[in-house]
Amino acid sequence: MNVKVLAAIAAAALLLVGCRTVPIHNVKDAPVNVPAGQTATLATVEQAIVRAGNGLGWQMKVEKPGLIVGTLNLRTHTAVVDIPFTTTTFSIIYKSSVNLEQKGDTIHSNYNGWVQNLDQAIRRQLLS
Questions:
Q1: Separation CA 117–CA 2 (nearest Å)
Q2: Could you give the CA distance from residue 85 to residue 104 in angstroms, rounded to a whole number?
Q3: Which end of the chain is less packed: N or C, by CB atoms within 10 Å?
Q4: What is d(CA 125, CA 128) in angstroms, rounded to the nearest whole number?
Q5: What's the Cα-to-Cα distance from 110 to each of 4, 38, 80, rounded to whole Å?
Q6: pLDDT tens profile 6-20
Q7: Contacts of 90 (CB under 8 A, 6+ apart)
């Protein structure tokens, strides 16, 4: 095979591996679990979500009671999520993105990892 053909095949393979898209992962109505003997309030749930997001590099903006918008900027990529919450549940719902190859219900696979990390961090903060 000619060197140019091998280079073209290698470049195409890298593009396919680097651009893996998957279904968008949303967290819907996850339970708010707090330590035994404590009661969740809207304020304590809000504080836990903000602490969790900030700890992972998300910019958390309280839009109104019961709704936070989280924005994560990494290099040239941006992910924005709505985080509606009550004293009993919270959700993390895709809102928008930049440079994450979102098309319909699919997005770059890194996005789902970021959302899963945020979900786990919120659950840890609620229990602390």
A1: 45
A2: 25
A3: N
A4: 5
A5: 31, 35, 13
A6: 444 444 434 444 569
A7: 27, 29, 30, 32, 45, 49, 83, 84, 122
Query: Do residues 64 and 84 lie in contact, with contact meaning Cβ atoms separated by under 8 Å?
Result: no
109-127 helix and 42-55 helix, angle to the nearest 10 degrees = 130
- Give the integer Cα–Cα distance in Å for 116 and 37: 27
pLDDT in tens, 68-92: 999 999 999 999 999 999 999 999 9
CB contact at 8 A, 40 and 33: no
Structural contact between residues 70 and 47, judged by C-beta atoms closer than 8 angstroms: no
Q: Check: CB of residue 32 under 8 Å from CB of residue 45.
A: yes
Which of 96, 106, 107, 70 shows the shortest CA–CA distance to 85?
70
Strands 21-23 and 106-108: antiparallel
Q: CA-CA distance, 82 to 69, in Å (whole number)? A: 5
Is the alpha carbon torsion for 121, 125, 127, 128 positive or negative?
positive
- pTM, rounded to two decimals: 0.85
